[in-house]
Amino acid sequence: LGKSINLDAFKILVEVSKKNNIKRFIYASSSSVYGLKKYKNVHEKMSLKPLTDYSKYKAVCEKILLRFQSKNFTTVTLRPATVCGFSRRQRLDVVVNLLTNLAYNKRKISVFGGKQLRPNIHIRDMVSAYLLILRAPIKLIAGEIFNVGYENITVSSIAKKVKKIIGQDVELVTTPTDDNRSYHISSDKILKKLGFTPRYGVEKAIKELKLAFQR
């Protein structure tokens, strides 16, 4: 199922878009394509070592898309950090949203490991990034890849922020894990080339989700 959604349908979608004179094709890839990195700031020129099927398909699709780049068909890839915050089509399976949901509704957070670094970006900032790419001069984005992130913080730090905002009665339980994926992405390129600066953070996302649950 994952392959059919994330890989098999992709080339067909790109071909149909180009055939129908779509001018820009913006691909939402993932920062997870980098896999496990020891470097402090993971940038766009670093090698890709995806660890899961999902991230492997994302990496392959990036290569497919680049082959279609032409004068009349602008292709650009974004590698978002983990998106957080409230939205109309709410996801609760990503780290900030997941922990906030557990804290508010179960009054208990389970953290597996905790030292792993996770890059995050507020959904409002992610929307702003897409709008920026839609409006940017073609010469600045054609065939380019951009990381899009804001705060690189540990899972434990996220859990503590959640507990502080949701309530001190929330129980925080830490257990060992063999999932040591940890990475710290750099978003300097999109800042320097396009002037993109995020405005919202993890704490803002938690507070918005708390308000949404209260309502």
Number of helices: 8
Fraction of residues in β-strands: 15-25%
The count of β-strands is 8
What structural category do the secondary elements indicate?
A: alpha/beta
- Largest sheet geometry: 3 strands, parallel
Name the average pLDDT. 94
Per the principal axes of the C-alpha atoms, what is the gross shape?
globular
Lateral arrangement of strands in the main beta sheet:
1-2-6
Low-confidence stretches: none
Amino- and carboxy-terminal Cα gap: 35 Å
Helix content: 40-55%
| Order of SSEs | HEHEEHEEHHEEHEHH
Radius of gyration, Cα only, in angstroms?
A: 18 Å
Folded structure, characterized:
The protein is an alpha/beta fold and 215 residues long. Helix content is 44%, strand content 19%. It is built from 8 helices and 8 strands. It has a 3-stranded parallel sheet, with helices on both faces. A 3-stranded mixed sheet has the order 3-5-7. It has a two-stranded parallel sheet with strand order 4-8. Helix 1 (2-19) packs parallel to helix 2, helix 3 (95-106) packs parallel to helix 8 (202-214) and helix 6 packs across helix 8. The longest helix has 18 residues, at 2-19.
